[in-house]
Amino acid sequence: MAEPAPGHERATRRLWPALALPGTLWLVALFLVPIYAVMAVAFSGNINIFGEPIPAWNPLDWQFATFNEVVADSISGSYRAVWIRTAIYTGCALAICVGVGYPVAYYTARLAGKRRGLVLALILAPWWINYITRMLAWVNLLQDDGYVNKALGIFGFAPVSWLAGNPFTVVIALAYGYLPYFIVPLFASLDRIDQRLLEASRDLGVGMVRTFVHVTLPLSKMGLITAMVITALPLAGDYYTNAIVSGSPNTTMIGNQIELFLLQGPQKNLGASLVLLLSLVLMFFMAYYLVLTQRASRDAR
Amino acid sequence: MTTTTATPRSADPTQERARTWVPPWRNPWRRPYVLAALTWLYILWSLLPVLIAVQFSFNDGRSRSTWQGFSTQWYCCAEGSVGEDPSLLLALQNSLVLGGATVLVATPLGVMLAMGLTRWRSRSSQVANGIAMVPLVTPELVVGSALYLVMVNLYQFVPLGRPAMLLGHVTFSVSYVLVVVRSRLLAIGGDFEEAGQDLGASPLQAIRTILIPMLMPSIFASAMLVFATSLDDFVVSQFLFGDASNVTVPIKLYNAVRSAPTPALNALATLLLVASLVALILAYVGLRARRRGARSALEEIANYG
């Protein structure tokens, strides 16, 4: 029964593409065309009476003046500081994710023993709590008279104004927000490591640290990279975390700039150009990740 | 047996260890106290703020940072409570309706796509598969702004608001359904439908009477995941909601958090939490139905991430 009979082959030849057609058309119309619309707006050369760009649907009409200006401003102009800040915040938040998330994922996958189900459920829980709710919870705690400052007061520290453009708050909030998305894929990868390899290493008298460096870490490298890419992509495009816990221009990230141009002003071509630029920067990571997952799913078959 | 750090499993090397002291980091049998403490601290850190926020939804005063006693007035029926403020109720209603509609459109679309792409092996199916995976790794900001620009400039027949939000939510949900259902399709293989067809079923009959029932738990689970994801979405909704009558709960929370919020906001967030939790529990039960044991169902959900 491994090979279907020729009759089935003929009957199903049209069926499977027909089933795949509606979903594929949907994604073309509402994913690929919208991405093209970003390019049409970014490369628009004309504005209408409201000062909004008229999209250039024909690639022959594309004007690159706005995009070039945005690129120049990003390299050495007004957006430069915003890009650098975005990179620093993303990098710091990602470092916290690795530092906190790896041990947690490792413990859950390998060592939690009979409490494993409970630990896993608790680690998955934030995934299902609305992101904005989780940020709102922190805003409650970090208010000037909130629990955090009260706790600091007990130890004799002066209250800190956390929510007035404090970069430290933004980085911690980003790490807090994205840690669940980092831990879960890493957990899945650590969970697949063959326990016998670690036992072999231990039985051969290798200490915990060297077992980790020479066995666990290389085996989980792929999972770690996947987790970092999955986390870094939304992190770099985040704007709401920043707006909720800071809202100050001192902590503006590139996402805030894009939201400002697209939703709060007529300069949509600037916003679209920044979206394109951000996508190009992230494209490298996205492509890398897609290659990794394709390879993994091919192996799974 | 004086070394308290040794586990009972390592009965025989204990005596030797008592003679020559081994530093803890060299001892492979040591219990992972540090890792355990770190993990529990992380869990506390990740969940405690939310629990405190839920607690303040039951506050007896207007403060969201000072506890003034227990009351359910912010659910109903103080002034400005969820039950009394039409804008809060409307947001809750919008979120639930949008989530339900997204499930109704995205699930069939995704299931068909999964069946088509898994069983249809050709170069075009690989291309279609690639297109279906890209939304999963595209930052929400890019998806949201792209959908916004296309709705405003090209699909002008789709008004911003519920129709545009529905299209947007379905777009990012289809890929989730695809991933969940495809993993199940790959696991059950093609033999069952072929057996059905050998016994005289038409291809469509084979799908309807054999494949769909076998896929039911994962179809149900993916529907619940889609519902929870739709409730959770902020970015796509914010780009497409149009005017105040279409605001969803996350947008309402986002807009209110910087103005003068009352515990009614916490109550609204708590209600949303309960809705996602119910969807999650249903998804869990659905997955559990096909794989006995709590652990494996949880791991299944973890692997979909």
The CATH class label of the largest domain in chain B is Mainly Alpha
Indicate the mean pLDDT of chain B: 81
* Overall 3D shape of chain B: globular
* Share in β-strands of chain B: under 5%
CATH-derived topology of the largest domain in chain A: MetI-like fold
CATH topology tier name of the largest domain in chain B: MetI-like fold
Give the overall average pLDDT of chain A: 84
Poorly predicted runs of chain A are none
CATH architecture of the largest domain in chain A: Orthogonal Bundle
What's the CATH C level of the largest domain in chain A?
Mainly Alpha
> How far from one another are the termini of chain B?
45 Å
What is the makeup of the main sheet of chain B? Answer: none
The residue ranges of chain B in which pLDDT falls below 50 over 5 or more consecutive positions are 1-11
Question: Can you characterise this structure?
Answer:
The complex is a heterodimer of chains A (301) and B (305). By secondary structure, chain A is mainly α. Helix content of chain A is 73%, strand content 1%. The longest helix of chain A is centred in the C-terminal third of the chain and has 33 residues, at 268-300. With 305 residues, chain B is an all-alpha fold. Helix content of chain B is 70%, strand content 0%. Chain B has 12 helices and no strands. Chain B is globular and about 70 Å long. Residues 1-11 of chain B have low confidence and may be disordered. The chains are: A mainly alpha (301), B mainly alpha (305). At the A-B interface, α1, α2, α4, α5 and α6 of A face α2, α3, α4, α5 and α6 of B.
Question: Which key features would you list for this structure?
Answer:
heterodimer; A: 301 residues; mainly alpha; MetI-like fold; 2 domains; two-stranded antiparallel ribbon; 1% strand; B: 305 residues; globular; disordered N terminus
